[in-house]
Amino acid sequence: MKKRSNVVKYNRWGYIFLIPFIVVYVVFQLVPLVTTVGNSFFEYYRSGLTQIGPNWIGLENYKSIFSTPDLWQYFGNTMIMWIMGFVPQILLSLLLGAWFSNPSLRLKCQRFFKTVIYLPNLIMASAFAMLFFTLFADTGPINSILMQTGVLDAPYSFMSHVWSVRTLVALMNLLMWFGNTTILLMAGMMGIDPSLFEAASVDGATATQVFFKITLPLLRPILIYVMITSLIGGLQMFDVPQILTNGTGDPMRSSMTLIMYLNKHLFSKNYGIGGALSVFLFVITGILSLIIFRFTDNRKAIK
Amino acid sequence: MKKKVISALLCAAVAGSMLAGCGAEQAADAAAAVADAAATAATEAAAPAAEPAATEAAAEEEAAPAGDEGKVLNIYCWNEEFKSRITDHYPGYEEVDGTHGKMGDVDVVWNITPSDDNAYQNNLDETLLKQESAAADDKIDLFLVEADYALKYVDTDYAMALKDLGITDADLSDQYEYTQSIVTDSNGNLKGSSWQACSAGLIYNREAAKEILGSDDPADVQAAVADWAKYKETAAKAAEKGYTMCSVNDTYRTYSNNVSGKWVQDGKIVVDANMDAWVNDSMELVEKKAENTYDLWGDDWAKGKKPEGKIFCYFGPAWFFNFCLDADQDGTIANQGGWGFCEGPQSYYWGGTWICAASGTDNPALVKDIILTMTTDKNVLKEIAMADSDCVNSKSVLADLSGSDDGNIALLGGQNPYAELAKGAEGIDLSNISPYDQGCNEEFQAAMKNYFEGNASKEEALEQFYKGVEEKYPELSH
Amino acid sequence: MEEKKGVSIGVRRVIAYIVLILISFFCLIWFYILFINATRSNSELSAGFTPIPSTHLIDNWTNLVKGTLPIVNGMLNSVLIAALSALLCVYFSTMTAFAIHAYDFKAKKFMFTFILAVMMIPTQVTVLGFLQLIDKMKLTDTFWPLILPSIAAPITFFYLKQYMDSTLSISLIEAARIDGAGEFRIFNTIVLPLMKPAIAVQAIFTFVTSWNNYFVPALVIQSDKKKTLPILIAQLRSADWLKFDMGQVYVMIAFSIFPVIIVYLLLSKYIVGGVALGGVKE
What is the mean pLDDT of chain C? Predict the structure, then answer.
């Protein structure tokens, strides 16, 4: 720590700078959140235009969502589809990041490639899904290419098989989000002092060594960020599978995610079950994020 | 160097597109102006025909403000269909802009929320719940509903009984009964009215019919599909010749309209025998490759519009002809007038929009006039039928059409389907609808698709159906 | 990724180029397909995909403009909401991150953990409560509920905080204090410029997210004049059978993508260029 006397008088600014965040947060998120958690203890939904409840029922909503193994199935689906998309995504992003930051490769057109990778994210998920439907239809171009090249004899129904649906979801997520991840990593890489690279190359380090010994460790804060936000984004996965399966999560709900399940309850404005599901989701996310923190960081995350 | 070139190219592309955007906008403005002029001309041309009605309405309007009618008419709907019907056919309606209009000195406000993600119903629900405390000019006056969820609103006090508006049974006597049973609440009060009667039938591929049945005459084809047993025989023959009948989802409505009991009885979900028949019949045909499992509107489903799609038929009402069969495109069956129409195995309907008056409306006289004009005035209905090819909710107008060449349709090879449509509309019996139909039908089709495609046993699929419905309607059980 | 030392630079470069070109293809093909579809009429579209453009681009566009949807208004609304959201979001998130990063105060650790916890709450979860709230606040059918909440964006905050950890040194701030600059001034004139690459990244993300948001605006906005582009697209897609026209939908999608592409290209120079490299040295 620096000279205390000097620092203390500035530190009240810490509070002042936090005011906007806190005010907005309390008004627009905390209040709705508290209501949400509170609602999880009530029977509280709409039947047509008639409001049922709120009636205090204690933990009944929690009992009801845990009464079947469904919740764990949806959790499993979510994790499977997230991992299927995230693993290739982070590998690809690191590879691209390494290439772009490797001075000895001297890649040309970097500007173009760096610009292009984020573009798919600009397309609305619903528009993207419309295109996927067209491409992967039984009579669509993908099937006809596969049949012409002799890979298939009959069209393959991508939307009717568990793993093809999951793969398509993962593929769409990968396409939409790998540019995002790469940009984050590149921004982190740009923050690294170039003199470190110069020093390394003077010492005769190979590109691989530089990447693993310098880039990766220095990237750690951003990597943690990427992993945690991607995990959170993954647990909140919704629009892609929702649109791709018309909200059904079929075949047999094997691609239904937790939020899709939550969304099912929004139809009847079921604040009770919805609240209980939210609390569950919150707890799960917290546990998993903690694991990542522990896993990636042997010191404390907070300085 | 190359980097520069590429960024320059990107910039140029953006700039180019912006310029193109501007140019197109101007062009579009010009085009819009031309279109406006054309529209005015059309209105002027149509004016004499509408005159008697117009004077009638004008009188009504003059009377209205004298009483304690409100100055603002709020209409809730999910698309522009009704707005364009009003704009084109309601005498005295002046358009102000996209969501505002005038009827006499009453301002009309259109509140259009798309139905995606249930947004329309959510919005309508919230507003209706506040109806009582809302200021007179903010109260909903009219709202529109679809059949699948009509009862959700009709069976509450938020929708006004038509008789309370002063609309009598005699006013509505020319309408088809099924269009009224959809919007009749559990106490027998009629609470809505429609200008459409969307009775539907079987639209068959004439070439396929010749090949499979040896005739493409509507009567012969009808005989071959007169009930589900005969339909299945025909399907087997079709499969032998390499044709698929249609999708299991095409036949769904025909079964679901002809159930013997409601989806929900005493809070329990009940799968009707006819729904079970749909599952078994469909599975049988899917296994024989005589039916497919494609979702409606998808690319695969749409392939049947061309001869090489090898589809025997679609199930659909009158609006299906123009909307779905793509007669304007080369190479479609419709383009060569290659479709035929018959009633099919059972009577059923598909689609339609109902107008409901909201309780608490401050414009009852105007609301009454709109409902009467748009859904019972024969001149207006005839106009709608001719201008928009709607199959209108009027026995006499349909009788006119079936007897005249106005009803001949090119894509059906010149066949006049109105007699069949009218007959179908008479035969529809919708006494077994419930407020839960939308959710039950959606979930049932979605769940059974798993069974048809071999991803689940019938029991598992049923289990998923119950699960889905109970999520949507927590008050139900099975 | 783990090439042997023996593999020559040349070979690695070729591999890199091949992979990059493949990736670029998969990133750009969607825009091509969207463009193709925008040139096709509704009935052509329903016949399935072809890679050859058709001739209906102008028709689709004129039909769209001729229709009653206020697309120009929608564009302006979307720009306004997305731009303000992005602006407020990055400005105040940087401020929040700065508060946690540069100052030492009692509640600091608590606040950081707290904001991280907040990040884990799915947005869909609080939507119902959020709607009830804005209704009580009489903010329904206004832009405020779409713009203001972006001030408290934990995910953006977290990123900026992480970025500050690796780039912004406290000594720089202390040097400025010695020069007599006030804290607010330090933040605006020294911290913000230093954070440019990170801010640009998050500004793009926030802009795009807000631009493509349908879920909340559809529930908040009612009057036509205030609708954003995604709502109008949804409205176009739920058009009745007389007006239903996928050609128009695709033209509209293409039309609504342009502004984001422009914003992205404008901001992307901070991301892809070498601007950031000066950060630490400055």
Answer: 83
On average, the pLDDT of chain B sits at 84
CA–CA separation, B350 vs B198, rounded Å?
6
Bridging pattern class, strands B142-146 and B72-77: parallel
d(CA B151, CA B158) in angstroms, rounded, equals 11
Please count the residue pairs, one from chain A and one from chain B, whose beta carbons lie less than 8 angstroms apart: 87
Scanning C33-52 for CB atoms below 8 A from A yields 33-34, 37, 48-49, 51
Choose, out of B453, B465, B467, the residue to mutate when testing the contact with A (most A CBs < 10 Å).
B453
Q: How many angstroms from the chain centroid is the CA of residue C208? A: 2
Examine residue A181 and state whether it is found in any structural domain, yes or no: yes
**Domain enclosing residue A200, as ranges:** 61-296
Domain boundaries, chain C: 9-63, 65-278
- The reported pLDDT for the residue numbered B27 is 39
Q: Are B184 and B151 in contact (CB under 8 A)?
A: no
* CA B471 to centroid of chain Cα atoms: 26
User: For the domain with range C65-278, which CATH number is right: 1.10.3720.10, 3.30.720.120, 3.90.870.10, 1.25.40.10?
Assistant: 1.10.3720.10
Q: What is the pLDDT of residues B180-203, one digit of tens each?
A: 999 999 899 999 999 999 899 999
Q: Establish if A21 belongs to a structural domain.
A: no
Domains annotated for chain B, with CATH where assigned, are 51-197+352-402 (3.40.190.10), 199-350+408-472 (3.40.190.10)
Pick from B128, B460, B474: CB nearest A270: B474
Question: With an 8 Å Cβ cutoff, are B98 and C47 in contact?
Answer: no
For residue C162, which residues of chain A lie inside 8 Å, CB to CB? 221-222, 224-225
Which of B113, B330, B391 is the mutation pick for testing C, counting most C CBs within 10 A? B113
**Cross-chain Cβ contact B298/A252 below 8 Å:** no
The more confident residue out of A50 and B281 is: B281
Could C68 and B83 be called an inter-chain contact, meaning their C-beta atoms sit closer than 8 Å? yes
Calculate the alpha carbon distances from B196 to B91, B112, B376, B388, C53 in Å.
19, 20, 10, 11, 38
Q: Is the CB of residue C238 less than 8 Å away from at least one CB of chain B?
A: yes
Contact check, Cβ <8 Å, A108/B158:
no
Q: What is the pLDDT of residues B405-453, one digit of tens each?
A: 888 888 898 899 998 899 999 989 888 888 899 899 999 999 999 999 9
C253 in B contact zone (CB under 8 Å): no
Name the minimum distance, in Å, from the CA of B36 to any CA of chain C: 9
Spatial separation of the C-alpha atoms in residues A165 and A170, rounded to whole Å: 9
Q: Is the pLDDT of residue B157 over 60?
A: yes
Q: What is the pLDDT of residues C208-236, one digit of tens each?
A: 999 988 878 877 887 778 889 988 888 88
Query: How close C66 comes to chain A (CA, Å)?
Result: 23
Q: How far is C17 from chain A (nearest CA, A)?
A: 8
Report the pLDDT value the prediction gives residue A296, as an integer from 0 to 100. Answer: 62
pLDDT band at B20 (very low <50, low <70, confident <90, very high): very low
Q: What is the mean pLDDT of residues A77-81?
A: 95
Query: Phi first, then psi: what are they for B73, rounded to 5°?
Result: -110, 115
Indicate the DSSP class of residue B294.
P
Q: How far is C61 from chain B (nearest CA, A)?
A: 8
Domain assignment present for residue A246? The answer is yes
Which value does ipTM take for this structure? 0.84
What is the count of structural domains for chain A? Answer: 1
Phi, psi of B341 (to 5 degrees): -130, 135
Would you state the pLDDT for residue B159? 94
Chain C residue nearest residue A144, CA to CA = C49
- C67 CB neighbours in chain B (<8 A) are 80
The pTM assigned to this predicted structure is 0.83
B161 in Cβ contact with B368 (< 8 Å): no
Q: What is the domain-level CATH number for residue A287?
A: 1.10.3720.10
B174 and B379 in contact (C-beta within 8 Å)?
A: no
pLDDT at B376 over 90: yes
**Which element (helix H / strand E) includes B222?**
helix B218-224
Q: What residue type is A36 in one-letter code?
A: T
The whole-number pLDDT of residue B30 equals 39
